[in-house]
Amino acid sequence: MAQAPLLQLSDIALTFGGDPVFDDLSLVVHPGDRVALVGRNGSGKSTLMKVMAGLVEVDTGTRVVSPGVSVGYMEQEPDLTGFETLGDFAAYGLEPGEMYMVERAGEGLKFDPDRLIRSASGGERRRAALARLMAGRPELMLLDEPTNHLDIEAIGWLETELKTTRAAFVLISHDRRFLTELTRATLWIDRGQVRRQETGFGGFEAWRDKIWEEEDQSRHKLNRKIKAEARWAVEGISARRKRNMGRVRALQDLRAERAGMIRRQGTAAMDLAAGPKSGKKVIEAEGIAKAFGDVPILRSFDLKVQRGDRVAFVGPNGVGKTTLIRMLTGEIEPDAGKVSLGTNLAMAVFDQSRAQLDPNMTLWDSLTGDPDMRVSGKADQIMVRGQPKHVVGYLKEFLFDDAQARAPVRSLSGGEKARLLLAKIMARESNLLVLDEPTNDLDVETLDLLQDILGDYPGTVLLVSHDRDFIDRVATSTVAMEGNGRATIYAGGWSDYQSQKAGSDGGAVSGGAKQKNKPSKPAASASRPAPNQLSFTEKHRLDALPKLLERLEAEIGKLEEYLSAPDMFTAEPLKFKKATEALAERQQALAAAEEEWLELAEKAES
């Protein structure tokens, strides 16, 4: 017997400000669904998710949640009003015996439950909201950009949790690798219509392109038919005293059909103009070091960046990636060592804090008020790559309409702010691009375009990102900042870094960005260890297992204590069922971890 759906939307219609967002929309989410919700920035993904969560009232249509099904929603900007600490917010609604789930999520997502909300950053608030959702264990999770403000380690933790959960989830994310790894179905919002395909995000682009190709063919056939009918209507008048009004009305219907077709939004007309050619050597760092108080950021680090290199910087949040880039570009001084910059550099910077954007300025003033873009005596023009251009025309190239030109920057979505900042950067000529988290909030089409532009850019790129797929597509070398002042250079992108790290503890790079004076490794530390020796990955796992065993034992103890309440089964049968399932999962995980530890320990001793 088929299971009842968890959630069903039927014939939904919704308008904002007179403009239709959805019309006649229907969808179903089933138990076990793992769904990617995709669409262009501004297409209504977050709005649809709020409708699914029951937070937005629709004009017409129905939302039905099956009896007993709990729906959890993580929004982009959570409201923490009324709570003192992040932990208080994350633990709301949980029983005292379930607090361990918040602690566990906090450890994986790297947020401090004791942090006062008034001093918490936007990223910390989002991580607390995500921890609250994960700890609540709803049957259906609605996740709106959960990877924003997470570093790669936390993204990996969340990815593992979602792979092993029994709950269904609908997921909005700009992280293509994350979506590909997790989803088995795709909901695509396109011009107010929602389509579903029973394959994950990995097949989305081929599916989308096929639909667009069929749409273009239909439009072309319709245009040919209209042209033929229009020719008949004109040429036939001289041969007939009376028109065939049926065919005239049919021609009018064809034209109405064409007018009713909603054209696809184009891609942003982004382009990068290289400035004058820089010298072959762009940056050379020799023995640079930096510390904040007693916390080392970098210890005696050497790096050479040459013209055309694309260097990615990866590592946990707070490890010092942005600080290193600021040292390399001469913005701040290292405590020790020196940085020398090459000749003829023209630098453009995309900063993750969007500090170049004043939220109270209009888009118009944000561009015309930029000293690098101002055209003397022309209030409505800006300088774009050496040529004057009307400000509204340039904004349209980045998919902003006439009305948005006079709107304040604060009214923009995250993706729109990223596009505006890219518009400012791409208006000037450069030969050194510094991109600090450029991929946050950008839709798939814009990410693809940015990747292609960087591929054709003749200058040099320094990139900070937690988007593994984007790093793989762009980077020629990767600097991994691993904490405690250690930074190691690897050839290639993220996947190359992971494979090299698994094979050996480090690796010098030949060509492009280079770390100098790095001693060579003995043959025994190569990727194929001698018999009965632990590989680097196995040794790392053996070191980590005791902490995992300790955590699992503690969770089992708390669950057993929670379930021991005499009236638990009769008073809270649903919570009893969830806790029992969680206990069985932890016991299985503990048994597997103990067996793994025993095998590795025996191998190490031998």
How would you sum up this structure, described in words?
The protein is α/β, with parallel strands linked by helices and 606 residues long. The protein has helices at residues 45-53, 86-90, 99-109, 122-136, 152-164, 176-182, 204-235, 245-260, 321-328, 363-368, 391-397, 402-405, 414-426, 444-456, 468-474, 494-503, 536-563, 568-571, 573-605, and strands at 7-16, 19-29, 34-38, 60-65, 71-74, 140-144, 168-172, 185-190, 193-197, 281-292, 295-306, 310-314, 336-341, 347-350, 374-375, 378-384, 387-390, 432-436, 460-464, 477-483, 486-491. The strands form 5 sheets. A 6-stranded mixed β-sheet has the order 5-6-7-3-8-9, sandwiched between helices.
Task: Note the topology.
Blueprint: E1 7-16, E2 19-29, E3 34-38, H1 45-53, E4 60-65, E5 71-74, H2 86-90, H3 99-109, H4 122-136, E6 140-144, H5 152-164, E7 168-172, H6 176-182, E8 185-190, E9 193-197, H7 204-235, H8 245-260, E10 281-292, E11 295-306, E12 310-314, H9 321-328, E13 336-341, E14 347-350, H10 363-368, E15 374-375, E16 378-384, E17 387-390, H11 391-397, H12 402-405, H13 414-426, E18 432-436, H14 444-456, E19 460-464, H15 468-474, E20 477-483, E21 486-491, H16 494-503, H17 536-563, H18 568-571, H19 573-605
Parallel strand pairs: 3-7, 3-8, 5-6, 6-7, 12-19, 12-20, 14-18, 18-19
Antiparallel strand pairs: 1-2, 1-4, 8-9, 10-11, 10-13, 15-16, 16-17, 20-21
Helix pairs in contact: 3-4, 7-8, 17-19
